[in-house]
Amino acid sequence: MNQAIPQTQLKHGRVISPASRGAVAIDLGLLGAWQVNEMEGGKNFPAMDAGPFPQPFETDSDSVAPPADGYILSGGKTDARDCVNYTDDEMSKKLGRSFNWPLLNVDPGQILEVSWAYTAPHTTRGYRWLITKDGWDPQQRISRAQLETQPFFEDFYPQVPYYSHAGELKAKVDHQVKLPANKQGHHVIVLMWIVANTGNAFYQAFDVDFQ
Q1: How far apart, in whole angstroms, are the C-alpha atoms of residue 16 and residue 191?
Q2: DSSP 8-class letter at 25
Q3: Angle in degrees, CA 130, 164, 176, rounded to 5
Q4: How far is C-alpha 23 from the chain's CA centre?
Q5: Residue 121: its pLDDT value, please?
Q6: Is the pLDDT of residue 113 over 60?
Q7: 7: which of 120, 134, 196, 209 is 20 to 30 A away, CA to CA?
Q8: CA-CA distances (angstroms) from residue 59 to 123, 135, 162?
């Protein structure tokens, strides 16, 4: 008799290319794919508070509380998924060996291709991209103070209200982003998949090295 698939395995979605911190954690045996699919937290980030999504999308579902500083990369999850927030030193201690988050080599201003795998493709408002400031400290967990105050790119569907356009507001399997042209060296990128009809976004993080 076949066992039912646990409901925890049916959640949401994650980036499958390029490799995110979540993908690295899966490869290390620290997380299951379903956990990386479910790194969801309040969609108003980098704002601190729950409440209406900003105009002109205020008819979308209100945001729940966005992730706290230090737990941003896991979407606010503080269970096993907290490992994606770890600094290199924290990961080295957890693994009992020297560890550095793998870096994706990129060029300033290049187009980055991103692919997702969805297990529950929600009604989508869009995607928001943030990046660390120049001079950020890799020895500290990612906080709002470590990130640029404004997203470097947003890709939102304009249709409102979402409930009149649900069939059009589809999650994108493949999409592109133009990376900042003025960055050098190691940076962390935070990608949010923002859902229109819930209070959440799904968070994915990448370590990149601008050549």
Answers
A1: 13
A2: H
A3: 30
A4: 12
A5: 77
A6: yes
A7: 196
A8: 13, 38, 7
